[in-house]
Amino acid sequence: MMLAKHKGWIYVDRVQQGTGPSLEDRYALDEGRQFLTGNQALIRVLIEQMRADRTAGLRTRAFVTGYPGSPLGSIDLALQQAKKHLDAYGITHLPAQNEEFAASSLMGTQMLDEHPHPDVDGVVGYWYGKGPGLDRAGDALKHGNFAGTSQHGAVVLLSGEDHEAKSSTVPYQQEFAFEHHGIPVLYPANIQEFLDMGLHAAALSRFSGCWVALKLVGALCDGGEVVRVHRNGIPVETPELQISGNPFSKVANHRFFPVVNVETERKLYEERHAAVLAYGRANALNKIVAIGPHDRIGILSAGKSWADTLQALEDLGIKEGPSAAGIRLGK
């Protein structure tokens, strides 16, 4: 097997060996270029997160639970099909009876600071569901986010979005529900960002103590793309953050009693959210993509809407760069 570079990409040259590509490459390929559907990319996130943790010397496990619904309607089947790859990295998939039970069980994965395990340093938990299920799970999600994550743990919420209600009882836009629970949201614009933002979501949760959501739209979950996969995750910058003159440090707290719970809420909104913003700045999760000295219009977009914005500008004949037309773009 040979590694080759082309236009910044690293890919595995199997043709020279005569072996040809394999469907197993979706999860077995260490690094290079690979075609993945949206759901396959999310499973790849689990594997790459465990690889990255092992490289960092952490004895972590992953726990995946949820209730399927379009656009994540087939993720449970995809997880079952990938079982041998998941087992190899200590990843457990346990479907739940509903989204609320799933979220409640994830809270238990983040209690290792209070109840240590001799063989496990932390658990990265993953919840999957969609809009109406997010409403149902609200109480568990809010309590879980208030309680936080363990020192080496994290929680990532894979939340399907069905704006047009193609396969849902009602149209849904989930950011408002997550905002109510104090949960930060990352919004991938393509399947490559399913991978990259999925890894950032776990790192952000581990740093800040917040549960972190990924907003996943149907056009991407059901679509496919050639993406770059990673051997040991992605580069992550851990910011240095001071809170009232002291270094920021998250503390998981599952005691929901009077006085204690008020302080927990203060730390969430005043300290942990500050940590979220610091991580976002350090890792350029929000950025100016096109800028010029004579910009007169600014367009700020995210996720699939970002890709739609670029397509709209091209349809309008603005192909030489938005800044040349006086347009500044923020992603």
Automatic annotation (TrEMBL):
<dbReference type="GO" id="GO:0016491">
    <property type="term" value="F:oxidoreductase activity"/>
</dbReference>
<keyword id="KW-0560">Oxidoreductase</keyword>
<dbReference type="InterPro" id="IPR002880">
    <property type="entry name" value="Pyrv_Fd/Flavodoxin_OxRdtase_N"/>
</dbReference>
<protein>
    <recommendedName>
        <fullName>Indolepyruvate ferredoxin oxidoreductase family protein</fullName>
    </recommendedName>
</protein>
<dbReference type="InterPro" id="IPR029061">
    <property type="entry name" value="THDP-binding"/>
</dbReference>
